[in-house]
Amino acid sequence: MGKKVRVEHLSKIFGRRTQQALEQVKAGKSKQDILEETGATVGVHDVSFDVNEGEVFVIMGLSGSGKSTLIRLINRLIEPTSGEVYIDDQDVSKMSKEELREVRRTKMNMVFQNFGLFPQRTIQQNTEYGLEVRGVDKEERRKKAEAALDNSGLLSVKDQYPNQLSGGMQQRVGLARAIANDPEVLLMDEAFSALDPLIRKDMQDDLLDLQEKMQKTIIFITHDLNEALRIGDRIALMRDGEIMQIGTGEEILTHPANDFVREFTEDIDRSKVLTAENIMEPALTINVEADGPNVALQRMRKEEVSMLLAVDRKRYLKGSLTAEEALDARKNDKTLKEVLDKNVQKVEKDTLVTDIFNIIEGSAAPLAVVDDDDRVVGVIVRGSVIGAMTDTDTNDSEELKESQEADDKKGVNADA
Q: What EC numbers are recorded for this enzyme (predicted)?
């Protein structure tokens, strides 16, 4: 996967004494101090990141964090004070007006919060607008616009006008118009912020569905962490014009870079973000193609467990094996394959913790975690799920977790 967008040491200072303000930023002075001393406002300072082709990269932060300035620096609606922006290794910050106009027409489209539809044009005509500006002939732009409207479930309203549609429908048209232009990079600035919560969730679903089909490179601005976690492959969290941390939702929640990030994310329901891979433990396994019951029982004694996951030589999951089943195999001269339980419960490594809880709640046995090829990569015990679903900093939840883990990890009977 190649790098579609590269941002290198990008800064924007609003005001006249930009050089003095930049020097003060580098010296560690606050935005407020710089404003008072120079009259200049720090919009963005020394921001660097890459966006992969086909990635949804979310830039988020509170009001005044610099996120909207940053997205406008990427397509040069705002001129940078310093730094570079590359699209496919072309430096946007050094392009002539003509080159920049061509890039905006063919490579980058922007979807704004206020929809930006022309009230006097029909939905079809609005959707065709970008293609019309590019000089695409009438029949081709009609086909492309109708395909984009059909993808967004809007074909039936193509002859209506924007004021006949709800806010959610208007924003769908704005998205369809951007998609019709077939941009390589889609910039979305607080695109869903003005919508009611239920409509906003629908729009997020629409975006995810469209992205699955079209695999665009999307840079999405939001102030809503839940929205960022829901749609972003990676998230850049901003404060006072600087990036505090870049990572996946899981990385930011589980390994916050500093106190600001930790406080920003503390109210998030982690069970709706964390996955099996994040809470699993190394799996204790037995190779049923090579090992016998004595090896299995010896491993259980050593590890002080009463169950192992049964795998083959390539670690494909074959079932589970309890101490009782291993004893049965030893006493009755059976192979492990003959006695193992093939109905072991399993989850894929990207299964959400909130979904795992519903599976493991009524099960005494741990869950196997498998990759896309059904190979065992770990195991989950109830205590880990409970710990992820509660605030594990509290004593009560720690005690509950330890109690559950003790239940999950009972030792083998001495007769074994």
A: 7.6.2.9
Residues 6+ apart with CB under 8 A from 237: 60, 61, 243, 244, 245, 246, 252, 261, 264
Helix (H, G, I), strand (E, B) or coil at 219: strand
Percentage above 70 pLDDT, the chain: 88
Write out pLDDT tens, residues 322-338: 899 999 999 999 999 99
H or E element: which one contains 380?
A: strand 376-380
Q: All domains of the chain, ordered by start, with CATH?
A: 3-107+183-268 (3.40.50.300), 276-408 (3.10.580.10)
Answer whether 276's CB lies under 8 Å from 380's CB: yes
Mean predicted confidence (pLDDT) in 224-233: 87
Cα 213 from Cα 90, distance rounded (Å): 27
Q: How far apart are CA 233 and CA 309, in angstroms?
A: 32
Yes or no: say if 311 and 376 are a contact pair by the CB < 8 Å rule.
Answer: yes
What pLDDT shows up at residue 206? Answer: 82
